[in-house]
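Feature request disguised as a bug report, sorry. It would help if multi-protein outputs had a clear separator. Right now it looks like this:
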Amino acid sequence: RSIVEISAGILFQGLRNQIYLLPRGGVTPTPVGFAVEELLNAYPDISAAEYLSEDQTVRFCCNNEAGTESLILLFNVRFLEWFTEGPYSFGIRAAAKANGRLYLLTTGNAVLRQLTTDTPSVFVPTAWRSTWAQSCASCTASRARNTTAGARLSR
């Protein structure tokens, strides 16, 4: 449930708290989830992973061990940065994409649909942005910025 294909290769959860990229034609996976290790410790159960090509993000739907809370980890494929949405007070059973939007099935059997637009005055208080994901020790450039980017969900 944590495996997703992108243009660069395959992203997957290899260890409880790490996301890896297996490059196309490569044999050695590269860890890209250092920035989200602590979040994966708190929400270790990935129930779904989807690639949305429209905004070039991978969304990993993560639940806590009890399945009562969830968090969505977003990996921006273009800029190699992590974002989060949540935490939410429900678990996520499954996810799917259709017409450029993410759909979630919650543990309460509600279906949530990603909103594509927000009012300019809307603030998304649960967003977080990481530093760049680096796949080699010699790459030292990094940056961190606060952001309010993130998808909104509706019923």
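(second protein starts here, but nothing in the output says so)
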Amino acid sequence: EWFMLDFEKHRQLHGFTATLNNLYLKRRELWERDFSWSGFDWIYADRDADNLIAFRRMDRAGHELVVIINFSAVGYKGYGFPVKGKAYRVLLSTDDEEFGGGGMKYPELIAQNDMDMITLDLAPLSAVILEPVNERTVQRKKRTKKQTAQTDGKK
């Protein structure tokens, strides 16, 4: 019933499903160690009062993704998550406007604080997948932004 894609919400869900499927295929962390506990680590398994779970998925090379799911109809401001990496970026947010969400904006880099935690605002009924960003990537982004600003200033 492809005519359903004529309706915006159906088109957005179709786009989300395609994006999620592509992410799954591209990111080994999500499937390479499916049948082993070495590919999965709970961050929060017992946040039932908040209706929230968070976990890590790892591939054989040790790369990880962090998955955070808010099952609550209530959003959260500044929710803390213990992490191993220094900085993260959002790979996927179900709250993106292109998927029919409210469009919560996340910073380009989500940095770890002094307590080895990152803090995130979470939209109601949403999921976020985060990817660690290494120091070289952070430095490269800073240089690129600086160069762009310098180039824009010369125009």
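Even a blank line would do. Unrelated, but nice: The CA atoms of residues 69 and 100 lie 17 Å apart.
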